[in-house]
Amino acid sequence: MNSNKSQQLFEQAKLIIPGGVNSPVRAFKSVGMTPLFIEKAAGSRVFDVDGNEYIDLVGSWGPLILGHSHPQVVEAIQKAALAGTSYGAPHYGEIQLAEMICDAFPSIDKVRLVNSGTEAAMSAVRLARAFTERDKIMKFAGCYHGHADTFLIQAGSGLLTGGVPTSPGVPAALINDTIVCRYNDLDSVRAVFEEGSGQEIAAIIVEPMAGNMGLVLPDIEFLYGLRELCTEYGSLLIFDEVISGFRVTYGGLQNLLDIEADLTCLGKIIGGGLPVGAYGGRREIMDLIAPEGPVYQAGTLSGNPLAVAAGIATLKILRDESCYDRLDVNSYVLETRLRTVLEETGAEIAINRYGSMFSLFFTGEEVTDYESAMSADVNKYRNFFAGMLKQGVYLPPSQFEVCFLSCAHNEEDVEKIAEAVWCVLNDQV
Ligand SMILES: *Cc1c(COP(=O)(O)O)cnc(C)c1O
Fold first, then answer.
1. Is 176 in the same domain as 253?
2. Domains in the chain, number
3. Residues 314 and 171 in one domain
């Protein structure tokens, strides 16, 4: 594995871009390496500027469920570009994508397109506050909803009491309006509601399938319980399905569990690799958004024709070609192979998988929430990551990011990944 050019470019980038990257985790800081600069990508593979080829398990952090540069998606983007890159005026593609989203989610009557998941979650929270005329938001440790101030607050030492900002620059004044509870711990949520905050909580926002502390599967009773508490106290339930939307099924995890969220946040897959986010929900709530109602939210490039075209092309393929079955089979085979490898090597690794998302946590504990995720040994992951890269497999450069399989990964890729894991663990263990 050669990385001369990547190293050179990283040095150059660091001079003019903070940390050399436009999103922190890309910098490989938590694995203590130099990031690969990518030259091109196709199907299940990425190619770096030094001429190395990798099986990609990052998938641009979730959007690329069809793999890189899927021909039909690329064609849709090319066609759209020839008709103009942005109008700042309504166009038919927006209706098409909105209809596809509403058709796929029974809980979404109306949807507004934005440019990122961050924007979707931030706007959904503003809307929930306006609708309920309340200020407080409840979130869960380890869930990520983008980088708006409201979400950059973590539980203080006394969980459930005051929080602390996770970033300088977040006003202390916001701390009291964000309550942080433990994922999968319904009792802690119920306690907060019953101890008097219930009437003040505008919304609970939750990743129904948590994908930002590594993959953590929800306890189904936890999610049903959140729904019940919200209904009882007049708070809104916001499902952040930016990762799980169109990843776990054609629709979201809410479809599989038959839970009606009041508002749903989407992103990633619905943009087919271009910048799109969306938030939607019940008509009476969505009708509060400007210009129909008073809640302001806008975007110069929202509903961008190229992004919308990529999203429509992606969703059409997912809808019409029963991609999920194939993905599930490949993912299941990979999990089975990995479990065999772990048994053979005796490595202490917890595998969490749901459909085409999975995480390998370097811990002997079962991982069910933020605390147990944090029991993972990041140094072991660092070595594992470096070893896998040498074997030609590009994993997320952090223990706490999810691996994604795509429809472009075939049986051969799956076999190669499992073999690479075997080689790396045998060197180490
Ligand atoms: C990625 C992600 C976001 C943020 O989306 P961006 O497009 O990066 O702003 C929000 N919520 C969840 C669950 C995500 O995984």
1. yes
2. 2
3. yes
Statement to judge: residues 35 and 92 lie in one domain:
no
250: nearest Cα among 318, 312, 310: 318
Q: Give the end of a domain, one of 284, 318, 352.
A: 318
- Are 352 and 216 in contact by the 8 Å Cβ rule? The answer is yes
Q: Which atom of ligand 1 is nearest to the CA of 119?
A: 9
Nearest residue (by CA) to ligand 1, atom 10, is 145
Mutation pick for ligand 1 pocket among 61, 243, 248, 276 (CB with most ligand atoms within 8 Å)? 243
400 and 412 share one domain? yes
Q: What is the CA radius of gyration of the chain?
A: 21
Q: Does 240 participate in catalysis according to the annotation?
A: yes
Q: Single out the residue in 318, 343, 374 at which a domain terminates.
A: 318
Ligand 1 and 207: CB distance under 6 A: yes
Scored b (16 or more CB within 10 A) or e, 183-213 reads bbbbebbbebbeeebbebbbbbbbbbbbbbb
- The domain that holds 400 is classified in CATH as 3.90.1150.10
Residues 64, 78: one domain? no
Query: Residues 192, 275: one domain?
Result: yes
Tens of pLDDT, residue by residue over 178-227, are 999 999 999 999 999 999 888 999 999 999 999 999 999 999 999 999 99
This prediction's pTM: 0.97
**How far is the C-alpha of 57 from the C-alpha of 55, rounded, in Å?**
7
As a whole number of angstroms, the distance between CA 178 and CA 199 comes to: 14
Question: Residue type for 348, please?
Answer: E
Q: What SS3 state is found at 203?
A: strand
Q: Does the C-beta of 142 come closer than 6 Å to ligand 1?
A: no
Which residue's CA is minimally distant from atom 8 of ligand 1?
117
Compute, in angstroms, the gap from residue 211 CA to the centroid of ligand 1. Answer: 10
**Is position 325 annotated as part of the catalytic site?**
no
Residues 218 and 300 reside in one and the same domain: yes
Distance between CA atoms of 321 and 328, rounded to whole angstroms? 14
Q: Is 268 an annotated catalytic residue? A: yes
Co-location of 230 and 110 in the same domain: yes
- Residue range of the domain that includes 358: 4-69+321-425
Q: What's the chain's average pLDDT?
A: 96
- 388 vs 427, higher pLDDT: 388
Please say if the pLDDT value at position 159 is more than 50. Answer: no
- The CB of 251 under 6 Å from ligand 1? The reply is no
Share of residues in the chain with pLDDT > 70 (%)? 98
pLDDT value at residue 89: 98
* pLDDT higher than threshold 80 for residue 1: no
pLDDT in tens, 81-93: 999 999 999 999 9
**Nearest alpha carbon, ligand 1 atom 6:** 117
Catalytic residue among 240, 262, 369, 413: 240
